[in-house]
# Entry
Amino acid sequence: MQDIKNPVMSVGSEVYTADGKLIGQYYKENRSPVDLKHISPNLVHALVSTEDARFYSHNGVDFYSFFTSILSTAKGDRRGGSTITQQLAKNLFETRKRKSQGIIRHVPLIRTVVYKCKEWLTAFKIEHVYTKDQILTMYFNTVPFGNNSYGIKTASLKYFNKQPDQVTPAEAALLIGMLKATSSYNPIRNPERATDRRNVVLGQMEKYGYLKKDEYDANVKSPIKLDLSYVEEDSHGDSYLRRAVEKWLDKWCKDNGYDLYEDGLKIYTTIDSHLQQYAEEAVAEKMKMLQKRFYNLWGNKNPWRDSKGVEIKDFILKNEQKLPIYKLLDKKFGGDTVKISEYFKTKKRMTVFTWNGERDTTFSTIDSIKYYAKILNTGMMTIEPSTGKIKVWIGGIDHRFFNYDHVNQSRRQAGSTFKPFAYLTALDNGYTPCDKFTDQPVTIKYKDNGKDEVWQPNNADFHFSYQEMSLRWAMGKSVNSITAQLTEKVGWDKIVQYAHKVGIESPLKSVPSVSLGSNDVSVYEMVRAYSTFLNKGEKIDPLLVTKITDQDGNVLDEFKLKSEKVISEETAWLMLYMFRGGMEEPGGTSQALWEYPGLWKKDNQIGGKTGTSSDYVDGWYMGITKDLVTGIWVGCDDRSVHFTSSETGEGSHTALPIFGRFMEKVYADPKSGYTYGNFPKPWVKITKSYQCPSPHIAADTTATDSTSNPIDTTNVIPTPAPATENPESTPPNQK
# Structure
């Protein structure tokens, strides 16, 4: 009786954006419960007239129907005699599985009698505890409809993209007709049989007075009109987000004893559906263009190359050996490489990703490896530092074909986006934005695992100007030689310490090149670290989920922002001022953003940092506005496949355009809540000198940014540096 009073259904959990849009589900059985008042009478009438015409007059077991069904079966007309309540007992309590163990199950005839007795007893108990309406509600929420659809709400959405209170008599008859055999009468696979079965159900509805003759005639003649768009929306490319939420909640579920796939949780994320849409649109638009550039660059040549540009001959073989099937084939063919090679050369039908939608084609495994190796991918995340809420999460270009999440799973060389941590270390240890260094060759001797090493970094353009530059100018223009000198002054161990302090969690090898981004980091931790500067020096634990409720809306837990003061407010503000140098200093590497006029209304201010790793393997852009921090990475999944020049592969030409287009869309939407404006004024008195305008340079077309190769060259639109700057004034109009 306790089981019957408190039945347990496996109910999938649902994930929502901050503005209430359903974006995903977790389920073993795809089920979404619904009250009877939200179920169309057409469905109730179809069910009762077809499955249990005497439903309202029996007490769980209809002996009259049972014995007549036996007689009919004996005459060759096989039909069931189970009532709706008995079917509920079977579906809800698995009377033929979980509670039916023992040796009797091996005796065919006796086994059936035992099963039936258990169903009868359970049905009587159900009728004792619940009303007829409650029994119908439980039945509609437990019955399977095929295609991993459990419950009437899931089925009506999946087959007709309608709520269950909106279905017509014909649609209700189709759904109820499927209950006899969900596979045989599936309208997707067997439309003719489904139509015949639907018409039988409509006939029963007329027979028992639920349909008039003219209504019956009209519904029987109507063709089946399926609307499968709900299924497509449910498999939208935000699956990266669903997986991220699952990972984020893994510990919470274990600590609190919940199962994400069975307990019907409602999970409310911090994601803004509008910003997420704008980001996806910007990624699609720009990545499509970048992919075309990549194809044009390489043509028919294979792009997998070593650091000297020589083609890697065993690239395909190594990728074959990484496939899970390789070990099986190796065992099957006894290590015969010829037979294994033949298997991988065999053409097969397959569906592949393209920027114009998925395409059916005939590829061998080798064709597939070659094809996908050339596809560019991306990772993008946007956070609101003041609240710690993650607003955008794009793990890649299409989760159906690329499961690897490039926001928090992938770690890639940060390139020059790591340089700000060297300048942060300097500013927090006595230096000012106005301190000057000379752009000249640098030689740094150090020990690596006890071995003497010498590091002599080049500038991106392999040129030293011997010009004296302020730290702000040097960071804005991304000058390697000055960053290296600064690294030697403050110490690479200390730079690693500060990077970890503000939010980088990946292990960092402490060598002089650390400040030029020689280590691998994720988009997630870079965005987190940069947000510390906009958040007054407070390091945050980014929030992806704000609230979890049960099915009835009862709050199970709420998540609040956790933060820790790691740098002073003065240092944090000075870093924001330094980031603006990418736009305001001569040759600043962010100046390609001038090409996006939608960013520069009302004297808007944007700061940021481009980055590109050696050989143009990884392109980065970290963008900062007064409200948001966005991180973007672009590259191929295999590091040996990449662009070949600064004009094609630097961060300002790959990742930066995505940021520019994204923010244009955000600013263009007055409902987004994010407006143009200046960076915050100093939160405290600024004691360090920072009013040191750089000399005006009429033109500078060599603005580059790299760890070792020419990277991030931008066509600079000459802009005057501010003549003066003080905490209370806004910078001059630079349009």
Summary: Residues 273-298 form the longest helix (26 residues).
